[in-house]
Amino acid sequence: DDPEGEGKYNTYTGYTGGHSDIWRNQTRSKTGLPSYAGADIPGDNYAAVCASGVDDSPRSREGFANLLAIDAAGFMGIAQRLFYTEAKRKGNTEEAKNWKEQWEKTRTLVNQELWNEEKGFYFDKNFVTNRQINVMDLAAFIIPLAGFDSDKDLDAQLNDPSLEPSDKLRTMMGNVHKFILPYGVAVTTGEEGKIPEKPEQWAYPNDWSSRTGFLIKLAMMYPEFYPVVKEILTRQLIADSEYYDDAKTFAEAINGETG
Predict the structure, then answer these.
(1) What confidence tens digit (pLDDT) does each residue in 162-179 have?
(2) Contact by Cβ (8 Å): 19, 6
(3) CA 72 from centre of chain
(4) Contact 258/183 with Cβ under 8 angstroms?
(5) Would you give the distance in Å from CA 226 to the centre of its chain?
(6) Quick one: pLDDT at residue 24?
(7) What is the pLDDT of residue 197?
(8) For residues 33 and 77, is the Cβ–Cβ distance under 8 A?
(9) CA nearest 136: which of 187, 98, 170?
């Protein structure tokens, strides 16, 4: 039940119920990266889509159960960083070493499997067909929050507050204009950058505020990105205020073209 041997590192039971519980309900492909398929019913696309929360998106057309998901990989990296820093804080040298090694392995795999040098972006990958999914999604910006875009050592990333953004992140931010709409920023660019033939919940032209949050966090980390993020937020706030004026509530997603 514990093929990674992580059970011995379950030291934070009061907080997480044990580190290995974080991925116990996920399956990993043979590459070692996670998919959203449930460990109890691997290969079941309906369960994987439900686990992802992205139930109507061009990302899921080939089946979420077969995808190495950019957001799942990013969240894994963020967790590994958290476990590493917490183990160091508690003086658990062996545990800290384990989580740093896990983070380094995941970083290598993410850049090997999900980075597209030609397009300058991270993409989901179908591990069955061994093909990247040609849909740009703001979920890719979780990966820099895990530090996987950088060649810097994990300790250098954590200890140097003046760290410059990586070349990969700058290239990714150069693609943000493809998402910007009059009323915010689209969740995805649509497959191959095209507008989807039919409306999809988590796709162009819809703005999903939880995705915009990744860009906000990056702007807080790297001030050079603040101007473009400020522009996005201004457009989104206008959309939110206009929606509230009409409905007296806020929407999780708003049409980025029409508000």
Answers:
(1) 778 999 999 999 999 888
(2) yes
(3) 6
(4) yes
(5) 20
(6) 45
(7) 59
(8) no
(9) 187
| Span 76-90, pLDDT tens digits | 999 999 999 999 999
Q: Assess contact for 68 and 123: CB atoms under 8 A.
A: no
Nearest to 141, CA basis, from 121, 162, 116: 121
Compute φ and ψ for 253, nearest 5 degrees: -130, 145
Residue 50: other Cβ atoms inside 10 A: 14
How many other β-carbons are positioned within 10 Å of the β-carbon of residue 174?
Answer: 12
> 187 phi and psi, to 5 degrees?
-65, -45
The CA-to-CA distance between both ends of the chain, in Å, stands at: 48
Q: Could you give the C-alpha distances from 31 to 66, 128, 221, in angstroms and in order?
A: 12, 11, 30
pTM, 2 dp: 0.84
Tracing tokens 């050079």 back to the chain, one arrives at: 224
Determine how β-strand 121-122 pairs with β-strand 115-116: antiparallel
Distance of CA 91 to the CA centre of its chain: 30
For the chain, the three-class secondary structure string (H helix, E strand, C coil) is CCCCCHHHHCCCCCCCCCCCHHHHCCCECCCCCECCCCCCCCCCHHHHHHHHCCCCCHHHCCCHHHEECHHHHHHHHHHHHHHHHHHHHCCCHHHHHHHHHHHHHHHHHHHHHCEECCCCEECCEECCCCEECCEEEHHHHHHHHCCCCCCCCHHHHHHCCCCCCCHHHHHHHCCHHHCEECCEECCEEEECCCCCCCCCCCCCCEEEHHHHHHHHHHHHHCHHHHHHHHHHHHHHHHHHHHHHHHHCCCCCEEECCCC
